[in-house]
Every structure is written in structure tokens, then in C-alpha cells.
Amino acid sequence: MNTTTAVPHPEVPTTPQPTSGTDADVRTATLQTKLSTLINTFITSNPQSRASHNNARNSLPGGNTRSVLSSAPFPLTMKSGKAQYLTSIDEKEYLDLTSNFSEALYGHSHPVIEHAVKEALSNGFSMGAVSNKEAQLAEVLKERFESIDYVRFCNSGTEANTFALLAALAFTGRKKVLIFRNGYHGGTLTFANDTNPMNLPFDFVLGEYCNIEHTRQLITSDLGAILVEPMQGAAGMLPATAEFLTFLREEATRIDTVLIFDEVITSRLHYNGLQGHFGVRPDMTTLGKYIGGGFSFGAFGGRADIMSQFDPAVGTTGTGRVLAHSGTFNNNVFTMSAALAASKLVTRESLSGLNALGDGLRRGGNEIARDHEWVGLEFSGMGSAVGIHFARGGDSETLRDCFYFYMLDRGIMVGRRGFVSLNLAHREEDVDRFLGAVREFAVEVKSLCLL
Predict the structure, then answer these.
(1) DSSP H or E segment with residue 334
(2) Which DSSP string do the residues of 243-287 spell out, in sequence order?
(3) Do 230 and 263 meet the contact criterion of CB atoms below 8 Å apart?
């Protein structure tokens, strides 16, 4: 029996005492009191999730093995998912508006994907050999993304971006990589701050996203690659401008370097990715998340001359060597089967309808902000990817947390950092339900004299 005692951690913020300070001090104290109340309700309503988390802390640092799921006082533990709903071990059903951070594009337990996986299960699933399915999936991706002449598979977006960078640097024979502040390209390539100790030790040059004049000063002939998201996801669903992406394309061509679009998230916003939407063609593209149909997946592809470095019969790097890229699960049967089945669900029509649903949500959220004269509440993003921003000086994080727990109390799950990612199972009534809760939240916050 494991008798290790879990490391104690705070669960409920201390309720602030009344203050006779400025109006801002009073608003802050009132808001923190509201948050304390919401968190207390959350704790008492979810005893099984709380117990599960405390038990997990005996063997897992932080109680989980995916840092983005850490959430004080504890995260909900889920036991099942169906379509647009998740059910917790406390038997509470939630309208899931996170879609596993955009990965669950098809909703949960889609029958088409489930059938494909069951078929794979019955035909042998760890054969250590080539199958026809990987070439079939490669053709699907080539058809969708014009920038991809050849593609290779891996197991995550992190891997995809890592291998793309390594291939680009081998191709150019240079070392420096231009990336952008607040960009997220995986667990080892994240730039929310300048000193992330988990980042890989590439020679990074840090630019300002969508700032052409600042970036222009950083474009030098020793850049080996430029890596950019056409819309920054983790930073709050912030789309690039066509002018900025076109500028990067022109400069990459001018200095003969490799431009990489990280479309791990953004490829779901247009059938041809945001490169198709903006009409800007990168040299390489990275993919991941939803394309695997619910299984671990990553892909990197691009121009034939770059990708041929991986072909023993054709390509060599500047050093005269062929690039090796191995991975036991790169072509695993479950991912290949699920991805092929899922690809039939991704059509121009289905993505267009989903994006229209997201546009309606974003428009409705911003209308609520205007109706309540809530300066600083903003819904950003593109299509089915929506960022939710609370700008009120030092209170922004508290407002965001209040919103998160307020939604959970009404059976709606949003991203705690402030986002919604719709999936193909969502319907207009789900958006209406969410916007109704947003309106109620705005009314309640206004009644507390916080607007």
C-alpha cells in the first residue's frame, strides 16, 4: 500500500477583508470574494474529483502528467465523453467547449472513428511494418495543403515542429531560428517568456508577432528557419495579418531560408489551412492534433527538395548525409486508421459550417460586452477558435477565473486561460446556451459594480 502523504496545497483563496480604500481596491476585494465563493461551491460539488486528485498527487507531481490540465484547487476528473458532452466521476455532465484544446474536432466517441479503430484492433495493431494506410493518409494531406509535396508522420505537434526545424537547418546549413513572442509550438518550443528552461537549445531569435518593422531588423542572412503560427493559439487566438505573413514569405525568399507554418491548430480553420485562407505558401507545414482522429499524431511536410533529405535513394544534406527519422509509433495502426476515417468527416462544407458557428459565438459575445458597456471584455480568434479576454488591470486574472468557475457551475466547460474551441458535434443551441450564461455573468459582474 502506498502510504505517502500528498504534498499539501492551497485550495481556496483567502477571502479579503472589507477595505476602505479606493474604488479600485473595493472592486478588487469584491471580485476576490466572489471568486472564493465560486471555488468553495466547486469544491463541495466535486468530492470525487477532489479525492482522485489528492490520490494522484501521491505518485504524479502536481497530480497529472499534462501540465496544461493543472487547475487549482483541482481539475475535474472525467470518466466518459459522447459527442459534445463530458461526464465527470461526480456524475456531472458538461457541455465541452474546449474540445481537448482543439484536438477533438469530431466531438467525443464519433461512431465513424470508433468503427475504424475496432477494425484495426481485430486485424493486428503492432506489426512493426509498413501499411498502405500511411501512404493513403499522406495523399489526403497533400491534397489539402498545397505546400506539402512530401510528408512524414510522428506523434505530436511538438515532434512535428522539432523535426521540421531540424530538417530546415540541415537544408540551409545555418543555425539561427526566428520565432515570435508568445508563440507555442509544443512543450519544448514555447515562448510565453524569454527563459523557458524546458525549451530545446536552438539558437533562437525572438521577434514580435505581427510587427513588421521590428521583425525586419531581425531578418539576416544567417537565419536557417522562420517558424510562425498563422494564428497564435495559446496566446489567446490572435490571428496574423495577411501583410505580416506575406512579409515573412518575401523575406524568407530573399535570404533563401525556410519558412515554416505551424498549422497544428489553424489547419482546422480552413480546408487548405490558413495558408490557403491567406494565400501565402510556406516552405514547410507542421500538423497535429485533430488530424489523428483522437490518437497521438504529428506530421511535417513541405517542398520536395527539403523533404527528400529523408529519402535514402535521393537526398542528402549539406554535409552529404541522409537524414534519419525513426519512431516506433510514427505509422501506428490506430492513428493511421483513425486519421483516415476522420479525414472523410473534414470537408470544405463541414469546416465552413463549423466556422460560421464560431463566428456567431464571437459576434454574440462581443455584442454582450457592448450591451453591458464592458470595456475590456473581448472575444477574439477566427472561425471555430475563440479567445476570451478580460482586460481590467490587476483584476483580469481574477475575472477570468470567476468566469471559468461560473461556467462550470452551469455545466459548461471552457478553457480556464480563456478560450472556446468548437467541434463538429456542436449545434446552434449549444452556442445559445453558452451566450446565455455569458450574459448572466455580465449582469452579475455589473451588479457588483465592477464594470
Answers:
(1) helix 333-343
(2) HHHHHHHHHHHHTT-EEEEE-TTGGGGSTTHHHHHHT---SEEEE
(3) yes
Q: What is the pLDDT of residues 265-315, one digit of tens each?
A: 999 999 999 999 999 999 999 999 999 999 999 999 999 999 999 999 886
Residue listed under C-alpha cell 483584476: 395
Spatial CA neighbour of 11 closest among 34, 29, 38, 48 = 38
C-alpha cell belonging to residue 425: 458535434
Set of cell numbers at residue 374: 464592458
- Domains, the chain, in order of start with CATH, read 23-107+348-447 (3.90.1150.10), 111-343 (3.40.640.10)
Expressed in angstroms, the distance from the first to the final Cα of the chain is 53
Q: Among residues 389, 332, 419, 394, which one has the least CA distance to residue 154?
A: 332
Residue 395 C-alpha cell reads as 483584476
- Find the angle CA(261)-CA(155)-CA(238) to the nearest 5 degrees: 35
CB-based contact 172:225 (threshold 8 Å): yes
Task: Pinpoint the alpha helices (H) of 75-131.
Answer: 111-122
Could you tell me if residue 18 is left (phi over 0), alpha (psi between -120 and 50 degrees) or otherwise beta?
A: beta
Number of continuous H segments (helices) and E segments (strands) in the chain: 13, 16
Query: Which one-letter amino acid corresponds to residue 154?
Result: C
User: Is residue 141 a contact partner of residue 297, using CB atoms and an 8 Å limit?
Assistant: no
Per-residue DSSP letter, 190: B
Distances (CA, A) of 109 to 94, 104, 426: 15, 9, 14
Residue 434 grid cell:
453558452
Report the alpha-carbon distance of residue 314 to residue 255 in Å, rounded.
Answer: 25
pLDDT at residue 10, as a whole number: 46
Give the helix/strand (H/E) hosting 401.
helix 396-409
pTM strictly above 0.90: yes
Please give the DSSP secondary-structure letter assigned to residue 139: H
Using CA atoms in the order 185, 301, 100, 123, what is the torsion angle rounded to 10 degrees? -140
Amino acid of residue 157: G
DSSP structural state of residue 15: P
Dump pLDDT digits (tens) for 13-24: 544 444 445 777
Rounded Cα distance, 382 and 386, in Å: 7
* Residues 63, 196: Cα–Cα separation, whole Å: 22
Strand partners, 228: 261
Contact 338, 117 (CB under 8 A): yes
Gap between the Cα atoms of 328 and 308, Å rounded: 21
Lowest mean pLDDT segment, chosen from 139-143, 157-161, 354-358, 392-396 = 392-396
